[in-house]
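Figure 2 data, in text form.
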Amino acid sequence: MDLALPATDPLAPETILAFAAELAEAARPIALAYFRTPLDIVTKADESPVTLADRAIEVRLRGLIEARFPDHGIFGEEMGVKPGATPGSGPVWVIDPIDGTKSFVTGLPLFGTLVAFLDGGVPVAGLIDMPALGERWTGVPGQARFGAEPARTSTCRSLSAARFFTTSPEGFTGADEARYRRLSAKTALRRFGGDCYAYGLLASGHCDLIAETGLQPYDYMALVPVIRAAGGVITDWSGEDLTLASDGRVLAAATPDLHAEALAILRA
């Protein structure tokens, strides 16, 4: 008698991550076809530029997701929530076709494609892909990778030794700016720019601390599984887990001790 092999769980983290990699492979050639070429740029309400590449990538990724997982929700930067889907309930894909559009439109190769998979609002898998650099970070519970190699955060436990990143100091205003400046002044080294690339560097131990504000769920949800699986901590500025409803303030650190020290300043 023939014995049927057990069916592969379509929502197993490794299965989801393999599909996320397929999405990244589909996005790369589109991004590179537009990169460093004349672009039609539109300024959105939040003053961030939108390009033809953003839209073309999101259309492509949505089509692939709907073909493979027609019942899953989708939340993308350019096209919003899939009609009929409720983010936070059931399986949801959160995608940012080009994170770092300002880098993209100015020829800087530090832009990425972000893919996150959430189940019941909880981020299960995340992918950071850098098309122009050919680099990729992935994360599922218990496993973070940079390419085929394991990724691990640094052992930095003190602000006085921390290498600190933020995308731009101009992103902080009012009370947030005062908190950012207090935090930045206590770190050993400060670097700016990079958007999602900085989080990949943190996951691989090349920087230790990142603080940002004004982010959207498609900017940060893919980062959560990568940072956590690499041994780091990533929360909002109150120390709470990041969700689709978070206020856009993000703090990521290589170790719990470093995170706690930074958090104490941001809470003050």
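Caption note: The first strand starts at residue 42 and ends at 43.
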